[in-house]
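dumping the sequnces here before i forget
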Amino acid sequence: NAGVTQTPKFQVLKTGQSMTLQCAQDMNHEYMSWYRQDPGMGLRLIHYSVGAGITDQGEVPNGYNVSRSTTEDFPLRLLSAAPSQTSVYFCASSYSAGLNSPLHFGNGTRLTVT
Amino acid sequence: KQEVTQIPAALSVPEGENLVLNCSFTDSAIYNLQWFRQDPGKGLTSLLLIQSSQREQTSGRLNASLDKSSGRSTLYIAASQPGDSATYLCAVRGGLQGGSEKLVFGKGMKLTVNP
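..and the predicted 3d for all of it:
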């Protein structure tokens, strides 16, 4: 199985541009989430979803939108990129949001906004 | 607000040592705690998950313990090898202000095992 697949691996944007970071999982996981990882800040939750059609905000949701139309896909949209959104973005999934469901991570998208 | 701390931020040891990595959290009302490993340029790999009702979990040379009442977890690595070099992160799920859907991560500890 491929697990959690993120595309692209690298991206450079100019301020104000929009783009979508793709995330797909083939493990039939109900729970999916997006994190950003910044030096000195650790991993911070952006948005998450406990199933198709259900999304909610995490710790740092401003400037990002998500949707969950299928179980497999959970894209993250940057509406108008800002330099503060330069970061490494990770998508993660688990079987459920329950007690014994380890989180599985993709390999990340490194985004630079100039 | 749940806070997770890992001290020290970095550790360098010779090969063969037995290691103890520490993780502390401020809100003991957690559902579970997970230890991860992150290699440079890669995502996180889950190592061990301990439910709040458990005291420890073991996988190969790794043993993780949980003392919920004191807000502490330790990851024990036996007979360390250069291949263990990576950043280790702990994360807790839940807490009084967070539901089971949210994990809070520590900032990680960078381990270097020298041959």
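The interface with chain A takes residues 31-32, 34, 36, 41-46, 49, 51-52, 89, 91, 99-103, 105-108 of chain B (CB under 8 Å).
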